[in-house]
Amino acid sequence: SWRWPWSEDMPRFRAPQDAVYDLAGKLLASSPPEVMARQLRLVLVDEMHDTHRAMFTVLKGVLQANPDALFLGVGDRDQVIHARDGADAAFMGEVFDREVGEAVHAPLSASYRFGGTLAGLMGQLRCGTNCGSCIPALRGLVKAVPLAPRAVAA
After folding, report:
1. Beta-carbon neighbour count of residue 23 at 10 Å?
2. CA 58, CA 91: separation in Å to the nearest integer?
3. Of 16, 60, 69, 83, which one has the greatest count of Cβ atoms within 10 A?
4. What is the pTM of this model?
5. pLDDT digit string (tens) for 38-52?
6. Is the predicted pLDDT of residue 33 greater than 90, yes or no?
7. Enclosing H/E stretch for 70
8. Rounded to an integer, what distance in angstroms lies between the CA atom of residue 42 and that of residue 58?
């Protein structure tokens, strides 16, 4: 269910004073409002893995109202942290392809958090490719730090 148990009209992903749900409702009730047609050249969505249905509905409306705009969505399906509230990485993958149009999906191969070597090895682990050879290589790149036991207040 996408709704809170105490309200039939309150979707789980609707935060207090969240206008996204209201705009999505208007988009579903009619064609995109003219205000969305801005002759945009680029639509960029970061953290797209945390997109929920209302956000995706608004994004579709923006893209439909600006058919010449280029679209770039960036996200990591392993980092969906708002799934409890309706976020789903499918909105940047199979749902996008089905409802907007087939997109070109590309890996993000550079990061300020870690280098290409670690990214490649982690990609192998995630995909189950050649895992036997990447585990020894990770030992040289990743350092395990034991946590000190925490004191428990009585």
Report:
1. 19
2. 12
3. 60
4. 0.66
5. 788 999 999 999 998
6. no
7. strand 70-73
8. 15
